[in-house]
């Protein structure tokens, strides 16, 4: 697949123009474009510009409403429930994590449960959002049914991503993972390139493990991480998201023709307010140092979650962001 190297400012400007053409205000288009462009800047290519066309399609279908923002439904101490009003998923998520951090600054912990929202695109964005403000960030979302329970033939679970971010002076840690071995965005890129997954990605029609992303996407048969353990964790995430927000479960989301009306939870903890500063940095450093000190196999290296992100970001700022030529040309044609 042929790539072009696009400067960050040019990528953001083009994305913003595309958003304004479908009804975003200038300020919202700028925020949304920034999130998309930063996703590609950080090397998460499956959830950046490659997903942009799908967002435009959802807007034109009336599933994503550019002029809507979350509204408060209820409040109980450090816990709040909000209705996303089917607004842009990444902007809704960004606002929700901001609100969770505001609550954490007041109470030590803040929790925002968000119903009736849309796909949040790169979930790790909101983990980075928290750690860059010195907060621990935890968030998760449910999805449409796209993963079978262990030993099941049909998908009844979502791959329900989970994000955990921990701030650290020597380098923030941000885990961003779906409950499937591969996110569907990654599978889509592999299929587009005609490549097989490096590890089993899902199940075929006979229940056998397969590396073929096309089969997995066709059957919605993604392999749960940890097999039955990942399937169980996916179910629990769906339960928490739906119960805390009062919104849709994966079962409910599956009734719509397009993936919409998701439920999400955003949690922030402030180490300063919680009185953890005396040991927080020292303990984090000791744990990471020990982790990285493990002997690796020949030609391999040990990395913690998020360790490579800043290196990728700096490289792409200096040399340009890799974007598939076909994807870039399609965007520019839509802007004419």
TrEMBL record:
Q: Name one Pfam family in it.
A: Ldh_2
Q: Which domain of life is it from?
A: Bacteria
Taxonomy, top ranks, is: Bacteria, Pseudomonadati, Bacteroidota, Cytophagia, Cytophagales
Keywords in alphabetical order, please.
Answer: Oxidoreductase
Q: Does the keyword Lyase apply?
A: no
Q: Does the keyword Oxidoreductase apply?
A: yes
Which NCBIfam families does this entry report, sorted A to Z? PRK13260.1 (NF009750)
Name of this protein: 3-dehydro-L-gulonate 2-dehydrogenase
């Amino acid at each position: 697949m042929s790539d072009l190297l696009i400067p960050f400012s040019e990528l953001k400007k083009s994305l913003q123009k595309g958003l304004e053409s479908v009804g975003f205000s200038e300020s919202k288009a700028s925020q949304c474009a920034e999130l998309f462009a930063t996703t590609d800047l950080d090397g998460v290519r499956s959830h950046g510009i490659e997903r942009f066309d799908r967002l435009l399609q959802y807007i034109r279908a009336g599933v994503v409403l550019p002029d809507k923002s979350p509204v408060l439904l209820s409040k109980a101490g450090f816990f709040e429930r909000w209705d996303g009003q089917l607004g842009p998923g990444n902007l809704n998520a960004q606002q929700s994590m901001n609100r969770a951090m505001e609550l954490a600054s007041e109470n030590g912990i803040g929790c925002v449960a968000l119903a009736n929202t849309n796909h949040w695109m790169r979930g790790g964005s909101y983990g980075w959002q928290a750690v860059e403000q010195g907060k621990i960030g935890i968030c998760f979302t449910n999805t449409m049914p796209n993963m079978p329970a262990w030993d099941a033939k049909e998908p009844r679970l979502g791959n329900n991503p989970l994000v955990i971010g921990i701030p650290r002076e020597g380098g923030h840690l941000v885990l961003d993972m779906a409950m499937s071995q591969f996110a569907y965005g990654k599978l889509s890129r592999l299929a587009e390139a005609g490549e097989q997954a490096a590890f089993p990605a899902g199940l075929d029609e006979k229940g056998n493990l397969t590396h073929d992303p096309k089969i997995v996407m066709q059957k919605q048969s993604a392999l749960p991480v940890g097999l039955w353990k990942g399937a169980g964790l996916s179910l629990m995430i769906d339960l928490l998201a739906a119960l805390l927000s009062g919104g849709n479960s994966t079962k409910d989301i599956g009734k719509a023709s397009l993936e919409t009306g998701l439920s999400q939870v955003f949690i922030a903890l402030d180490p300063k307010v919680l009185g953890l500063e005396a040991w927080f940095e020292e303990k984090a450093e000791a744990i990471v140092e020990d982790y990285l000190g493990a002997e690796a196999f020949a030609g391999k290296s040990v990395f913690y979650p998020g360790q490579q992100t800043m290196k990728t970001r700096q490289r792409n700022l200096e040399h340009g962001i890799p974007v598939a030529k076909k994807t870039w040309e399609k965007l520019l044609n839509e802007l004419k």
